Amino acid sequence: MGAAIPSYDVDLYSDEVLAEPYPHYKALRDAGPVVWLPRNDLYAIARYKDVRESLRAHKVFSSAEGVAANEAANQGSKGTTIASDPPDHTAMRQVIGAPMLPSQLALIRPRIEEMAGALVERLVAQRDFDAVTDLAQHIPVNIVSELVGLPEQGRQNMLKWAAATFDMLGAANDRCAAAQDSIREMRSYVINEATRDKIRPGSWISKIYDASDRGLFPESRCPVLMRDYLGPALDTTIFAMANIIWLFGRFPEQWDLVRADPALIPNALNEAVRLESPIRGFTRQLTADHDIEDVRIPAGSRVALFYASANRDERKWEAPEAFDVRRKVNDHVGYGHGVHTCAGMHLARLEIHSVLAALVPKVERFEIGATVPAINNVLRGFSSVRVRVH
After folding, report:
1. Which of 42, 112, 154, 165 ranks highest by number of CB atoms within 10 Å?
2. Which of 248, 276, 241, 243 is nearest to 353 (CA)?
3. Would you say residue 177 has pLDDT above 70?
């Protein structure tokens, strides 16, 4: 018989926890390798080693029954790339991820760098701007919406649909319920509006239809797969980009290091994603009894894997709450891990790298003003960060 599993009687999806989650993540890590969350009817895994190993063990920690913290969302998301396991997941990911492979991104790199340069030039001339709405949203919204190939009338809703998608993947709370209208609107749109005759030829969505023509999956699956481009490709990148500007404002000596050596930009990006992970975590369902240390989790259990907690685990990282652009952090789990590693992470890195590279020669210091946190069931970031550049 395994060791007793401790309980943590706090709603991990409440406004208070979402606004300041890190003390709660530490409490989970200190409590044990597995913790029961009675308010959420979930087991929680919050330590780095255990989260990473669980993400690798996809045959036991299955995504096929959904990755949300509520059953209705899990039932509604079946068949999407995120809510599937190999071999179905592998086939879908090959199609969804193909445009975002490094070899394909090299073709659009010059355009992204040019857009980043023009954007930075304009905002630095203004001196004051919002790091979320003016900076972080600009390139993902403009580049991704065009590459995805949606009809024009759908592009303006992508940010709304993205936020709703992630709210739906949390607990069955008021935010989840409020997201339902947007989710229904998105589903209606991909079925009735983003049809083959209306999407841009050569776009990412057109390649989904091409894959269906090759027999990889029935055409009826195409609208479901489109949804993979209507959320994950935007919000996580936007939050990560705004987060790193906020961090450089709080830790100006780290920006000095990057300005002195721009080769640190990729490392700084990884460190920012580690410290302020845009994705808090997802759930998995166990296909078999599973032991972590001396704790047994029974088959059929729903388990939350908290990436953001793992990335601050003092068992893995020295001074985990410090922002250090020289830290070697290639093994963080901010983009997930294993077969479900974020398919868009290379695109996100390209976009953020391009912006930072354009800022290096023009900005000595970021002065952070008023900030407004974005309260979302799964995402962590800001809806507004006022910044003045010097």
Report:
1. 165
2. 241
3. yes
d(CA 258, CA 250): 14
Q: How far is residue 91's CA from residue 331's CA, in Å, rounded to a whole number? A: 26
Tell me how far CA of residue 337 lies from CA of 122, 143, 156, 256, 343, in angstroms.
37, 26, 31, 31, 11
Strand segments (E) across the chain: 35-37, 42-45, 61-62, 128-130, 281-286, 290-292, 295-297, 302-306, 366-375, 380-389
Which of the 8 DSSP states describes residue 324? Answer: -
Residue carrying structure tokens 């969804």: 96
Alpha helices in 169-305 (DSSP H): 174-192, 204-213, 222-226, 235-250, 252-260, 265-275
What DSSP designation does 340 have? G
For residue range 29-40, what is the model confidence (pLDDT) as tens digits? Answer: 999 999 999 999
**Which 3 state secondary structure label does DSSP give 143?**
helix
Task: Give the C-alpha separation, 33 to 293, whole Å.
Answer: 7
Residue 281 backbone phi and psi in degrees, to 5: 155, 170
Give the Cα separation of 384 and 390 in Å (integer): 19
C-alpha of 334 from chain center = 8
Question: Strand 290-292 to strand 295-297: parallel, antiparallel, or no bridges (unpaired)?
Answer: antiparallel
For residues 274 and 267, give the distance between their C-alpha atoms in angstroms, rounded to a whole number: 10
Q: Are 164 and 172 in contact (CB under 8 A)?
A: no
Q: Mean pLDDT over residues 93-103, rounded?
A: 90
Which residues 6+ apart lie within 8 Å of 306 measured at CB? 25, 28, 44, 45, 46, 51, 280, 281
- Global pTM value: 0.94
- DSSP string for 79-103: TSSTT--TTHHHHHHHHHHGGGSHH
| Dihedral angle of Cα 134, 139, 142, 143, to the nearest 10 degrees | 180
pLDDT at residue 152 is higher than 90:
no
Dist CA 11 CA 331 (whole Å): 29
Please give the DSSP secondary-structure letter assigned to residue 144: I
